[in-house]
Design brief:
Layout: E1 5-7, E2 10-12, E3 15-17, E4 22-23, E5 27-28, E6 33-35, E7 38-41, E8 45-48, H1 56-67, E9 74-76, H2 82-85, H3 88-94, E10 99-102, H4 104-114, E11 122-124, E12 130-132, E13 137-142, E14 152-156, E15 161-165, H5 186-200, H6 204-213, E16 221-224, H7 234-245, E17 250-257, H8 263-277, E18 283-287, H9 293-302, E19 303-313, E20 316-317, H10 319-330, E21 337-344, H11 350-361, E22 367-372, H12 377-395
Parallel strand pairs: 8-9, 9-10, 10-11, 15-16, 17-18, 17-19, 19-21, 21-22
Antiparallel strand pairs: 1-2, 2-7, 3-6, 4-5, 7-8, 12-13, 13-14, 14-15, 19-20
Helix pairs in contact: 5-7, 5-9, 6-7, 8-12, 9-10, 10-11
The structure holds MU-OXO-diiron.
MU-OXO-diiron is lined by residues 79, 81, 83-84, 147, 166, 225-226.
């Protein structure tokens, strides 16, 4: 068996990126990321998805190792974000006879990004179209906004392999294993929360539509564009994507606070302690000035309780806290038990400003608390009630 083979005649040809610091220029990659590409080699051959432009030489070398002197007949383009499409011009130059397979939007975006304007290079597909490779039939499913408008998936109907694009992907370069059964997947599952919430999080409605379209399929393997090939853990990763796209939290709480001199931080710590005493076992406390936005968004998506606290700062919210709330608003986060706290020295503006976000996002507030200047015995009693109110809303 070729060491790249996933299942009969389907191969992994992807690459690892352990160099890039930030995905999309924004999201930290402490464990790197993989750009996954696959080869289906039947009477005809298809390369499924490309890689980021800087890694295309490695992709070509991998494909040549799999196919020898044969060139791929088709390049299936499931997604056009440049981490997957950047290599397309070089692939087309290397294999001039290879047809690019995409839907109408894919083709338009390729023309816009890469100026490949010769229509004879393209094979256009629509929802549910099939491509017969002779021994394997690929069926296409359009899944717009998972995570761009042109996004689609394709299913190898005989081998039961789903090429899912970004769906079911995660951060983390591969560490030797390709299929989940070959590795300890802990790190990838952890990174899935951050990946989903940071990158795809805004498009929960569309992920739900895509999951509904996939409902009849029983894939043996899911080959996404980032992270392990899923086989043993298919049910688990589908469940994570299902819950995250419905904004359904796991048991636990995320507390995000900003603090200049430690007084607001003290409230955050006091709330965390009270939640722990009331039975919440997974609590993530983030100082918004220090934690990465990526981690904060990931935890906010992951857990059922979200508590945000800010001092009043120049008659506004503390800037890193405001940035976090903007990230929640952008992603249309919902279904959380939300509570907030503010602090001020002479003018209580922060709580009002958080209230404006709540109104726009149609969030209920399970508890709120405002502190003037510093924590004392009286505020301690108020925080007991705050924690009780959060727990009451959580248990509803
Ligand atoms: Fe991995 Fe939306 O690109």
């Amino acid at each position: 068996m070729n060491f790249r083979e996933i299942t009969k005649d389907i191969y992994y040809a992807g690459v690892n990126d352990r160099v890039t610091d930030r995905f999309e220029g924004l999201w930290p990659l402490p464990c790197g990321v993989s750009y996954n590409s696959y080869v289906v080699s039947k009477r005809k051959t298809a390369l499924v998805d490309s890689v980021e432009a800087g890694y295309v030489a490695e992709l070509i070398s991998n494909v040549e190792e799999i196919l020898g002197v044969k060139s791929p007949d088709f390049l299936i383009v499931n997604h056009m974000e440049p981490d997957h499409s950047g290599g397309i011009p070089m692939l087309c130059a290397r294999w001039p006879e290879m047809k690019i397979v995409g839907n109408r939007q894919t083709i338009n975006i390729i023309k816009g990004f890469y100026h490949i304007n010769d229509d004879s290079r393209y094979h256009e597909v629509k929802d549910h179209d099939v491509l017969d490779l002779g021994g394997e039939v690929l069926e296409f499913t359009l899944t717009p906004m998972v995570h761009w408008p042109e996004t689609m998936m394709c299913f190898a109907t005989q081998s039961k392999v789903l090429f899912s694009g970004d769906a079911f992907g995660c951060f983390g370069a591969m560490n030797g294993g390709i299929v989940d059964s070959e590795m300890d997947c802990g790190i990838y599952i952890e990174e899935m929360y951050r990946y989903y919430s940071n990158i795809v999080g805004k498009y929960g409605v569309f992920v739900q539509k895509a999951l509904a379209k996939l409902a009849g399929l029983t894939p043996a393997f899911i080959c996404s564009t980032h992270g392990p090939v899923w086989h043993d853990d298919i049910e688990r990763v589908m469940d994570i994507y299902d819950r995250l796209s419905r904004y359904e939290g796991e048991p636990g709480a995320t507390i995000i606070y900003g603090s200049m001199y430690g007084h607001t931080a003290e409230v955050a710590e006091a709330i965390a302690r009270r939640l722990a005493q009331r039975g919440i076992r997974r609590i993530r406390v983030h100082n918004a000035s220090k934690s990465s936005m990526s981690e904060m968004i990931g935890d906010a998506f992951r857990y059922g309780i979200l508590i945000v606290g800010s001092p009043t700062y120049s008659m506004r919210l503390f800037p890193p806290v405001e940035q976090f709330l903007q990230a929640m608003e952008t992603r249309e986060v919902k279904n959380k038990v939300f509570a907030c706290f503010g602090s001020h020295t002479w003018s209580p503006v922060a709580a009002t400003k958080i209230g404006e976000y709540l109104q726009r996002m149609k969030w209920d507030c399970a508890a709120s608390f405002e502190m003037k200047q510093a924590h004392d015995v009286a505020t301690g009693a108020a925080l007991d009630k705050f924690a009780d109110d959060v727990m009451a809303a959580y248990k509803k």
